[in-house]
Each structure stands twice: as C-alpha cells, then as structure tokens.
Amino acid sequence: MTNKKIPSEKCERAQELHEILQRANYQYYVLDNPELPDAEYDRRLRELQELEQEFPELVTADSPTQRVGAEPLSSFAEVRHEVPMLSLDNAFDDEELLEFDRRVRDRLNSKEAVEYACEPKLDGIAISLLYRDGVLERAATRGDGTTGEDITQNVRTIGSVPLRLLDNGVPEVLEVRGEIYMPKEGFAELNKKAAEAGEKTFVNPRNAAAGSLRQLDSRITAKRPLQLCAYGVGLVEGATLPGKHTEILQQLNQWGFRINSEMAVAENIQACIDYHQKLGEKREQLPYDIDGIVFKVNDIGLQRRLGFVARAPRWAMAYKFPAQEEMTELLDVEFQVGRTGAVTPVARLKPVFVGGVTVSNATLHNRDEIERLGVKIGDTVVIRRAGDVIPQVVSVVESKRPKNARAIEFPTHCPVCASPVESTPGEAVARCSGGLICKAQRKQAIKHFASRKAMDIDGLGDKLVEQLVDEGLLHSVSGLYHLKLEELVELERMGQKSAQNLLDALEHSKETTLPKFLYALGIREVGEATARNLARYYGDLEPLMQADEESLQEVEDVGPVVAHFVAEFFQQPHAQEEIEALRQSGVHWEPEEQGGEEQPLSGQTWVLTGKLETLSRSEAKDYLQRLGAKVAGSVSANTDSVVAGPGAGSKLNKARELDIPVMDEDELLTMLRERGFEI
Ligand code: JCF
C-alpha cells in the first residue's frame, strides 16, 4: 500500500482503519462478542471510504469497504478446484453408521476404536475460499466438485468471511472450505420484509442462501443475512497443519473463521450415535437448519490411508435426520372454520413421510397464501414439517402440473352454515359471519370452553363435543350444564360410568376463577394473560361487562384492538344471555384482588431461552406472569432476568454482554417454589 502520491500519514491511517474494522468484524461475526458499537464502526468505515475515494490506490481486495458489494457482473467465471470438492456418503440409521465404522476399521486393519470428529451438517451451500499470503483471492461454489463458479464479489460481502487472515504464520496458499447458510432468524426477517413489499418469498433458508449467492449484483448479496461456517481445508502450500481434523478447525478459528460451536470429538462409533441422538433432539432449537450430522475420522494420517471412493471420502459419513421436506400430491382443498370464524384452507395430501411422521394434511393458511403459491388441485407440492409445527405447503413443482389441474375456489359462503364469508381489508383472514349460528364455530367455542386452561372439564374431549353438537344435544356453551345422564348414555361409545364421570366433571368445573372464566369465553385476542389482567383490573365480571373501550385500554397490555373485541363481545345480547345462563347453572368464582397490590415480579421483564426440561416453555411463562413479570422474546437493556436452558445461544450471549442476571431451570424452580408454587 505504498504509493508516492499518497501522503504517508494517509497510508498509515488507512492501514489502521483496516485493522480496527477487521478486528471489530471478527469480534462481531466470529466471536459473537462485539466490542465496537455499531455507530462507531459505521464512522470508521465511512472515514476509510472517504480516504479511498480521495486516493483510489488505497483500495485493496481485503479492504473492509469491499464488503458492501460492487458493480453487477454479466456472468460468473468458471473455476477449477485443484483439489476436488468431495460430497459425503449418507447413512440413514444406526446400523448404516456402524457399517461405516466397520469398513473404516477393516481398511485400517484395526480392532481398536476409531476417534471421530462430529459436527452438525448445515443446510447451506458448500464453498471454497482461496487465500494467498493471507488475503482472500477467490471464492467459488462447489459446482460439480471439479468446476464451480467464481462468486468472490458476493462472498466478500459476508461479514464472517475474513478478507485477510488474522495472525502470522499463515500458509502461502490456504483453501478453506465451508458452508454458507442463512440463520433461521435472518431468513424469517428477510421473508417478512419481502412479503410486506409484495415480493416473492423464499421457500427455505437454504434456497434463500443459494439465491443470495447467485446474485450478479453483489450489492444485493450484501443485504442478505448470510453466515460462513468453516468445516475443512483443500489446497495448502507453505505450511503444515495439525494432525487432527478438530485441531485444524481450531487453527482456522484462530485465523478468523467461524467454526461450529457444537463440534465434538467422539471416542468411538457409539459416542457418534449418542451425539446424533442428542443433536436430533436439539435440532429445532439450533439457530440454523441442519439435515444431519457429519462424522469424520479425526486423525488426518488415517484419513490419508483411507482415501476416497468415486466422489466421497472413505473417512467421512453424513448421518441424515428425517427430511423436513418432501414432495407429494395435492388431492383436494377443504375449508375449516375455526372458533372465531376464520376460514382456513387445508390441503388434503397423498400421505407422505416427512419430518419423521406420515402427513396427509397441511395448512394453506389463507387466500393470499394460495395465490402466492399459485397452487392448484392435482399439483405436486413440497411439504415441510419442522419440529412440532403444523405441516406447510412451501412450493409447487410446476413442471409436474397435470393437464387437468383445477383452480382452488375460495368459498364465498361458509361451508358449514352457509353464512357469507367476509374479509376485512388489510386482514389476510376471511371469516364466516355466522357467529354462533355456525355449527363449526359453536363446536370450537365449546371445545375451547372445556379445555384445560379454561373450565378444565375432564373427559369432554373434541370428539365428544362434535358428537353432542351433531346429535343436537348441545347448542351452546351453557347447554353443557343441562346435559342429562339419560341423553349421554344413549351416545355411541358412552357407558353409564363415563356419562356419570362427565356429569361429575361438569359439576366440579362450576367452581372456577374469574381469569379462567374470561379466558373460557373465547373472546378474540383474549388469551390467558389478558384474561388475568382484565380480572385483576376490574375485580369482577359486572364492571368488566360495563367497561367501554377507553377504560379497557387502561388495562395492562390491552390496546385499541383488544379493547374493541372485548367491548363488542359483551355488548352482544347472545353473550349476555349465555353468561347469565352459566351463572344460573351455578358457575361461580371469588372476586379477584384488584389492581394495586404489588406482585413479587411486577414491573420486571424476563426472557426464557434454550430448552427447559421440567417445565414447558408456556408453563414457565405462565408462572412468571402470575408473579407479575412480563415475559419477552428478546434480550435488551430492559431485561431484568434471563432463564437459560441447554442450547441457549445468542440471547444468553447478549444477556452476559449486558450483565443481566442469568439463572438455570433449577434456580427458576427454586424461586417459584419459594413463592408458593407446588411444582
Ligand atoms: O455442514 C456441512 N454441510 C458440511 C458439508 C460439513 C462437512 O464437514 C463437510 C461437508 C461436505 C464435505 N465435509 C465434507 C468433506
């Protein structure tokens, strides 16, 4: 960076800025521990940009200013990989993994256990990064393993890709291999923004990552939340790397690369099976998509002895998890009517095994979603089922569309009660206008009323509610308390004993609390927490029923929308009659202690992160709210306490950074027990 025309102090300043920005970048992207505030970073970057504008000779390939993207390309150049980029052989069950280990030991003529490196297999795009004298020279896609595409301009924009290696003693030539991926959170945000702007959304994080890297205009790539995780090396010249795979990765980490924080060493193949099992349970909590675990013989000497077959090394294996996406056929679309009248299109599918279970229904959410997907009946569709989330239709395989594919017609009238279906402008959901005239809404309302967190009527399951309504024995929530033994025993699959049990449960449910009763009414947008707030503010039902929208908004967490739904609900003559009938039947509660009295955690904001083992997430939240705490989804300077379980990631880091007290689940349980909860 020496040039006669440039004053030496400018040259030195540019150098200094390079170092500051490079270090800040490393702390932010690799260590997850930023030290330079964003504004400070931006100021320094601007200073460097101005310097480079004044003296264009100062611009180097590794300058932090090069991360913002460059002029669009017309196409990507071809790149030949000097050391081929291999793919991985797959295993799908324990037996296949044990088979792999046997083959390894046979080849090595070894009876002893082989040590393996274990890491999650990220669902992204494999790439090669070539460094010469520590400076990023070229980044290329894997392509077919031998020839890939030069995407250097795009890769340069990714914060966690070092433009220059840290430390001295780097090899003259170092080719680092890794996976570029989009974390789940960034993906969700990107899609949200795209949807709001009426643009096309991405089907999954992997496609989003691939699409972002394939941009000819790197300024677009620069705006995408991409990450790099290094998993190995290719070409190395002018240095000797350590003798174990895990040590090489540690060395890469020293040089400024992110490596997977879940990486572990397994002493033998059984430990690999355990690792696969453990990560499988943690899969949903990880901040990125993975599709399996990669196991590699850890000793590089042994790797050399094992060599390759065709395109895959003999020393590595990917043990896959059940796929979360599969293709199947859309047989039909039905429309379900929910408790609040929402009409939801449901895809009836040719059964397909996905995410570990057989799926034959998936949600299509709403009319806009059907339009966005452009899906027709008869289409082949991609179904995604991740964790316990409802299966979704993520895309249509248009090349497989049959000639007789039929358009999906959204009903103008409720399929259950024939009342008109109405849409509110600005709302994606269409609703049946039938209210409780609609059998579907009535059934859902009764199921909700009986549910555990509401009136908790034991033995009144969904099936039984359907049966009672269909048989004409039950027309409303209050009708529950008029059911008779003679009627019940007439029902199919209902004996004398279960009929009596149900009547006992109904009797028992009459003694309730105001929050539970309010929640049970199923007022739109009134969940358990809001019901509790309303109960505490008004103390009893009558003042709440009289409250106007303005007064309602004085209640914690109640805004104009919720206030409107609450006031509207109690104004309906039908609702008033039902409430009256329920009280006539003996439903009762003690008035609530009103407002004023401070709860132990009033005014505090708590955050739950990671996996909880004894409590479910919603139970923990519920307990904390009952002590007066607010439970938030992200950590900020306003957070008072964080409960972190295994697998806690960025939220925990942030809490530590901000010096916020952190406790584990045991400590939370102790605290709750001290406050009188019996857990
Ligand atoms: O995370 C990955 N997708 C991943 C891919 C990790 C690895 O350790 C890999 C890989 C592809 C090939 N290792 C090889 C040899």
From TrEMBL:
PANTHER family: CHROMOSOME TRANSMISSION FIDELITY FACTOR 18, DNA LIGASE. GO terms for cellular component: cytosol. DNA ligase that catalyzes the formation of phosphodiester linkages between 5'-phosphoryl and 3'-hydroxyl groups in double-stranded DNA using NAD as a coenzyme and as the energy source for the reaction. It is essential for DNA replication and repair of damaged DNA. NAD(+) binds at D38, A39, E40, Y41, D42, S87, L88, E119, R142, E179, K296, K320. CDD domains: BRCT_DNA_ligase_like, LIGANc. Its EC number is 6.5.1.2. NCBIfam families: dnlj, PRK07956.1. Zn(2+) binds at C414, C417, C438. It comes from the Bacteria. It catalyses: NAD(+) + (deoxyribonucleotide)n-3'-hydroxyl + 5'-phospho-(deoxyribonucleotide)m = (deoxyribonucleotide)n+m + AMP + beta-nicotinamide D-nucleotide. The active site is at K121 (n6-amp-lysine intermediate). SUPFAM superfamilies: BRCT domain, DNA ligase/mRNA capping enzyme, catalytic domain, Nucleic acid-binding proteins, RuvA domain 2-like. Pfam families: BRCT, DNA_ligase_aden, DNA_ligase_ZBD, HHH_2, HHH_5, OB_DNA_ligase. This is DNA ligase. One of its GO terms (molecular function) is DNA ligase (NAD+) activity. Belongs to the NAD-dependent DNA ligase family. LigA subfamily. Residues 596-675 form the BRCT domain.
